[in-house]
Each structure stands twice: as structure tokens, then as C-alpha cells.
Specification:
Largest sheet: 6 strands, parallel
Radius of gyration: 18 Å
Low-confidence stretches: none
Mean pLDDT: 96
CATH superfamily of the largest domain: TPP-binding domain
Bound molecules: ligand BJW, zinc ion
Order of helices and strands: HEHEEHHHHEHEEEEHEHEEH
Oligomer: single chain
Strand order of the largest sheet: 5-4-1-9-10-11
Length: 243
């Protein structure tokens, strides 16, 4: 493991362009539950079952209870050493893009700048009638929050299953993946598309792909380097004593 970390660190120091893909695992040590596996349950529901347009259409009040619970939880937690280390890495490499599937906003709080939140942000709401997007940090918005302009029902400004990602954000993520010299893939089960294809794009264009996760994923056999362990332990080691 120490050798692999040293090898990866050497590649990062040499790299002109670094892309990082993060998933729920990077926020697990902050106390934010992941989607799959243990902790991926809210009441009797699997989290990913509620993250659909069908679930919202069938019962928007239930969906909002789920999102209010998550907003309150995220409001009470802090970013962790892995988020912080990525913000530091951004300052060290010439071109850096952080692609996050997370909606929790912890990368922003930790100071990351060139960030693509490809599944949206839980602190943003969008009107289902007029489409207006607003930021609202009130943890609990009630079960039927309304648009200030048109009184339409608001929904979380996140990307649910079956919904398209924002075109420009997706293009920017693909561009960063295809042009990077090194891609780090941190704390994602690598099962959700199109994110799971970003490391594949990176590697097909010649990048070194390194995965950091507490367990193996479908990506592991494909990655050049797999570091098994907690993001909060491993990512800071990549930026410590840089030279
Ligand atoms: C640690 C750790 C520690 C723990 N340290 N590690 C092609 C083939 C098949 C299906 C599709 C396809 N293309 C599209 C689809 C459909 C679908 C999809 O991918 N389905 C698959 C599940 C089969 N994709 C979509 O619908 C996407 N839209 C799209 O492609 O539009 C075009 C289209 C539409 C319809 C058909 C075809 C094309 C949109 C996907 C949106 C995903 N949305 C969610 C919810 C966001 C809002 C919210 O948060 O409420 O995004 S679902 C959920 O999964 C969330 C996450 O961002 C995402 C990924 O999960 P993630 O981050 O990987 O978390 P986990 O829990 O799965 O894994 C955590 C990992 O951390 C684990 O590996 C742990 O081991 C690890 N870990 N602690 C390091 N301390
Ligand atoms: Zn509106």
C-alpha cells in the first residue's frame, strides 16, 4: 500500500491535468449516509428508490420528508480530511477538475473551486412549474414548499434516476475525464451511469486511473491502482509533504 501511494503521488506531482470523481463514500466519515449497503435506508425505503421522479410524483410530501431529513443531517456535519485534501490538491496541480456525484455541498465548504456537481445540490430548489432555481439553506422546508414567484411546487435541484444530467456540466465532466493525466475515483460504487463511464473514458485516453474505496467495485479490476481503505486516511497522504 505504501508503495502504491508513493507511485500515485509521483504521478500526481508529474501531472498537468488531474480529474477526481467522488461519490458518497467520501462523505461517509463526515456522517452522511451512503446510498447502497448499510446506512442506505430511510425508514423502510432504500434511498435510491426515493431518488426518482416517479417517487416524487406519487408522493411529493414523502419525498420532501426524506430530503428535509437529509438537509438537516448535512447541515449538522462538517467536511472531513479527504474533502480538505482535495481542496489542497487543487492548489498544487496546474489543471484540476473535481467531478462529484454528491449533492451535499461538502466539497464547496472545504474550499474546492473547480467543481462539477453532476447530480445537483441539495441546497438548491427548482420550481416544477416555472423552472426557477433558488438556493435555500433552511434545513426543513416542510412537505409542500412553494415557489416565491409562481407558487408552484418546488422540488430538490438534484438529478434523479431516468433524468438527464445538465448538458454543459456533463460535457465539462467528459472533457476533464478525456484530457486528464491522472484520475482519482474516490468513494463511489461505480454503478450509476454516466459517472461510472468517466474513469473508462479517462483510461481509454491514456490516463492513470486510481481508485480509493473501502471495498472493491466493478472498477477495481480496471483501475491501474486500487487503494483499499478510508478516504479520510488515504487522500491526505497524497498531498502531505508534496515535494
Ligand atoms: C468509502 C467509505 C470511506 C464508504 N472511504 N470509500 C446505462 C446502463 C444501465 C443503466 C443506465 C445507463 N445509463 C443510464 C442508466 C440509468 C441510470 C443508472 O445508472 N442506473 C444504474 C443504477 C443501473 N442513470 C440515470 O438515470 C442517470 N441519468 C441518465 O443517464 O440520463 C440519461 C438516461 C436516462 C434513462 C435511461 C438511459 C439514459 C441519472 C443518475 C442520477 C443518480 N441520482 C442519485 C440521486 C441524487 C440525488 C440525491 O442525492 O438524492 O445520485 S442516485 C445515487 O447514486 C446518487 C449518487 O450520486 C449515485 C452514486 O452513488 P455513490 O456515490 O456511488 O454511492 P454508493 O452508496 O453507491 O457507494 C458508496 C461507496 O463508498 C461504496 O463503494 C463504499 O464502499 C464506499 N465507501 N465509506 C472510501 N470512508
Ligand atoms: Zn415558479
Amino acid at each position: 500500500m505504501d508503495n502504491e501511494i508513493a507511485r500515485l503521488k509521483g504521478a500526481l506531482i508529474e501531472a498537468q491535468r488531474v480529474a477526481v470523481l467522488t461519490g458518497a463514500g467520501i462523505s461517509a466519515e463526515s456522517g452522511v449516509p451512503t446510498f447502497r449497503g448499510e446506512g442506505g435506508l430511510w425508514r423502510k425505503y432504500r434511498s435510491q428508490e426515493l431518488a426518482t421522479p416517479e417517487a416524487f410524483a406519487a408522493n411529493p410530501g414523502l419525498a420532501w420528508e426524506f430530503y428535509n431529513w437529509r438537509r438537516s443531517l448535512i447541515n449538522d456535519v462538517e467536511y472531513n480530511p479527504a474533502h480538505k485534501a482535495l481542496a489542497e490538491l487543487e492548489e498544487k496541480v496546474p489543471r484540476f477538475t473535481l467531478i462529484s456525484q454528491n449533492v451535499d455541498g461538502l466539497h464547496l465548504r472545504a474550499g474546492s473551486k473547480n467543481l462539477l456537481e453532476i447530480h445537483g445540490n441539495i441546497w438548491k430548489v427548482r420550481c416544477t412549474r416555472c423552472g426557477k432555481i433558488a438556493v435555500d439553506f433552511t434545513p426543513d422546508l416542510g412537505t409542500s414548499p412553494r415557489c416565491k414567484d409562481c407558487k408552484g411546487l418546488l422540488r430538490p435541484h438534484v438529478v434523479w434516476f431516468g433524468e438527464n444530467l445538465d448538458h454543459d456540466i456533463l460535457q465539462a465532466a467528459l472533457d476533464a475525464s478525456m484530457k486528464c493525466d491522472v484520475m482519482l475515483v474516490i468513494g463511489t460504487s461505480a454503478m450509476v451511469q454516466p459517472s461510472a463511464s468517466f474513469p473508462v473514458e479517462a483510461k481509454s485516453k491514456g490516463a492513470l486511473v486510481a481508485e480509493i474505496n473501502i471495498e472493491s467495485t466493478p472498477l477495481s479490476s480496471y483501475a491501474d491502482i486500487t487503494l483499499l481503505g478510508k478516504a479520510g486516511d488515504i487522500v491526505p497522504r497524497l498531498v502531505d509533504n508534496w515535494h
